[in-house]
């Protein structure tokens, strides 16, 4: 650490991990672990991450939710190849293609407010299998505004990266299709809804049990699954106090029985264990899951402790955008057609661009769909305005970067383009859909 900012080095490598209780699993991990190291960043302190690639495949690393210059955003063809890699990666010579050998620096200005972000692989055509193998981790940004609040901290602030995976009997990860670029409805019809696993992992451990004191905890929930949506609530029926969403704190807390998280979304909630006698088990459940997929993890109240946290009545200053703020309206239709998942009837064109919003403006983007498509926008954070003419869900307040667009819905969001000019993308965060071409570029001008 110095005045020029922070610098860390992360090495992507093949490693053995203990995801299941009784066997080991070969993963591709940032620093050889899954999830990758939780990066702690501070608003106003720029961070450089030197990313080294010791995997057998090219990679591109994207900071999801990051307000990042385009050349560090993890564009799908902005690849870092292993030493002596051949053959040349596909798309190497296309628009936006850049190749770094073995290592490169990603520069993150960290000018944005406190939030729970995550980073993951974004390689063209192979994001889904490479994330499935372990290339995902969290970044927690803190700032002065959040530090001033009496929220739970230290070991009472739990970042929880949730994902589902499938395993072979020997413990290896099962991803049925090795090469998603070969996907077509004929060849891969069973993956059209994305890939699901029957094991739920939290921070890389199957259905963990976590010991807690009888106090309030902060859970930073990240849905890092390829395709699975969760309806999260507590087995005790106790309410969740939501304090934040994808890109930071809400204006004020919201009390809810459950929250729904689609792939890529985050939710920050407070859970109070003070009402439970020592020995009580409370399960974080998934109302959408059947059988084992209906459980995420267990908390066991094992000790008494003093609690000096509180639920503040006000959390943050969040300006509320309105329809009148939108400089223009654009529609993006997420739909199956021509044998693939497309946006506005087009498969991803690395050289094309569907929109050119101006830096410093707000636009109203309307997302329509034929299926579940968690729509994610790079760079621009947004507020959800409406769902097919109705109000957004109660857990969708504040600044977001991913929205759960459900079948045949029209979801309106107000996107603010701030921070950087350049080429960014929007896409479906069902990672199989993303690899099957449901992406588009836009240029902030
Ligand atoms: Cu989390 Cu472009 O993705
Ligand atoms: Cu992103
Ligand atoms: Cu989709």
Automatic annotation (TrEMBL):
InterPro entries: Cu-oxidase-like_N, Cu-oxidase_C, Cu-oxidase_fam, Cu_oxidase_Cu_BS, Cupredoxin, TAT_signal. It comes from the Bacteria. Residues 21-145, 335-444 form the Plastocyanin-like domain. Keywords: Metal-binding, Oxidoreductase. GO terms for molecular function: copper ion binding; oxidoreductase activity. The keyword Oxidoreductase applies. Its EC number is 1.16.3.4. It catalyses: 4 Cu(+) + O2 + 4 H(+) = 4 Cu(2+) + 2 H2O. Monomer. Belongs to the multicopper oxidase family. This is Multicopper oxidase CueO. It comes from Actinoplanes digitatis. The lineage of its organism: Bacteria, Bacillati, Actinomycetota, Actinomycetes, Micromonosporales.
């Amino acid at each position: 650490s110095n005045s020029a900012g922070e610098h860390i080095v992360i090495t992507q490598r093949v490693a053995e991990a203990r995801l299941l209780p009784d066997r080991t699993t070969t993963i591709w991990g940032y620093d050889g672990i899954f999830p990758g190291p939780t990066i702690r960043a501070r608003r106003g302190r720029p961070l450089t991450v030197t990313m080294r690639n010791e995997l057998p495949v090219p990679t591109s690393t994207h900071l999801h939710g990051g307000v990042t210059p385009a050349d560090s955003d993890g564009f799908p063809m902005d690849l870092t190849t292993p030493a002596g890699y051949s053959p040349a990666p596909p798309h190497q010579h296309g628009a936006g293609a850049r190749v770094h050998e073995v290592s490169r620096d990603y520069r993150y200005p960290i000018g944005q407010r406190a939030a729970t972000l995550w980073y993951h692989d974004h390689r063209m055509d192979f994001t889904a299998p490479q994330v499935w193998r372990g290339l995902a981790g969290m970044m927690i940004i803190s700032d002065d505004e959040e530090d001033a609040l009496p929220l739970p901290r230290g070991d009472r602030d739990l970042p929880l990266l949730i994902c589902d995976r499938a395993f072979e009997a020997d413990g290896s990860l099962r991803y049925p299709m090795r090469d998603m670029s070969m996907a077509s409805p004929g060849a891969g019809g069973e993956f059209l809804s994305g890939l699901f696993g029957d094991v739920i992992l939290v921070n890389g451990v199957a259905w963990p049990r976590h010991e807690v004191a009888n106090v309030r905890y902060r859970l930073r929930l990240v849905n890092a699954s390829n395709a699975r949506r969760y309806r999260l609530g507590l087995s005790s029926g106790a309410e969740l106090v939501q304090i934040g969403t994808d890109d930071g704190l809400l204006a004020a807390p919201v009390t809810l029985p459950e929250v729904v998280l689609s792939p890529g979304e985050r939710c920050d909630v407070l859970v109070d264990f003070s009402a439970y006698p020592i020995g009580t088990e409370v399960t974080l459940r998934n109302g959408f899951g059947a059988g084992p997929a209906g459980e995420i993890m267990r908390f066991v109240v094992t000790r008494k402790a003093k609690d000096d946290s509180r639920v503040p009545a006000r959390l943050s200053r969040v300006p509320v955008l309105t329809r009148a703020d939108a400089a223009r309206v654009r529609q993006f239709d997420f739909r199956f057609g021509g044998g693939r998942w497309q946006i506005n009837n087009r498969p991803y064109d690395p050289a094309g661009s569907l929109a050119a919003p101006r830096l410093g403006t707000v636009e109203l983007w309307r997302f329509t769909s034929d299926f579940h498509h968690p729509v994610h926008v790079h760079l621009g954070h947004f507020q959800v305005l409406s769902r097919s003419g109705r109000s957004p869900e109660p857990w969708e307040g504040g600044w977001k970067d991913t929205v759960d667009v459900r079948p045949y819905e029209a979801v309106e969001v107000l996107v603010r383009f701030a921070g950087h000019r350049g080429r960014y993308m929007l896409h479906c965060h069902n990672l199989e859909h993303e690899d099957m071409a449901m992406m588009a570029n836009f240029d902030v001008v």
